[in-house]
Amino acid sequence: MAADPHASQLMSMLLRMVNPKRTIEITAIDPEHASYEIGLPFIIKAGIEQKIDFIQSQALPVLDDLLLLQKEEGSFDFAFVDADKQNYGNYHERLMKLVKIGGVIVYDNTLWGGTVAKPDGEVPGCKREGKVLAAEFNRRIAADNRVEICLLPLGDGITICRRIS
């Protein structure tokens, strides 16, 4: 996400507008601690290391555990997802319970380098699976009447969802 300056600027502004008290960021839940270590210098530079609770785990079990604690339902104001693309739909269903009505969920990489709009024959083999997953997810949330969505062609594609029911 941070690689595209326009996307970073948008996220910064969006966070200031939403002013979330509780956030969940799926990339802060990772089976590899090394992923967190890569971002740690930036976290420290921003002075927010005390606000981040890195969880070394697969994300779905953590979300399921949060849902078992019924007090967590509807308790998050903002969520950001940039993780394993094959589980975007699973993350969405869980986050729809964890994020409050009026809350915002942002998904990264939803245009998969623009491949979602290209014919299959023009998509390199290494990007085909991602194209299919992204296109499938885009269709799914476009039909989800629980959210208002905005798909932006910044970076690798960003979809902003506001939970309305």
What are the salient characteristics of this protein?
alpha/beta; two-stranded parallel sheet; Caffeoyl-CoA O-methyltransferase; five-stranded mixed β-sheet; 41% helix; 165 residues; globular; SAM-dependent_MTases_sf; Rossmann fold; SAM_O-MeTrfase; single chain; 7 strands; S-adenosyl-L-methionine
Brief description of this entry?
The chain is an alpha/beta fold and 165 residues long. The chain is built from five helices and seven strands; from the N terminus they run αββαβαβαβαββ. This is Caffeoyl-CoA O-methyltransferase.
How does this model look, in words?
- 41% of the residues lie in helices and 21% in strands.
- It has 165 residues and is of the alpha/beta class.
- The chain has one domain (5-163): Vaccinia Virus protein VP39 (Rossmann fold), CATH 3.40.50.
- Strands 1-4-5-7-6 form a 5-stranded mixed beta sheet, sandwiched between helices. Strands 2-3 form a two-stranded parallel sheet.
- A hairpin with a 5-residue loop joins strand 6 (147-152) and strand 7.
- Helix 3 (59-68) runs parallel beside helix 4 (88-98).
- The chain starts with a helix and ends with a strand.
- The model has no long low-confidence stretch (mean pLDDT 93).
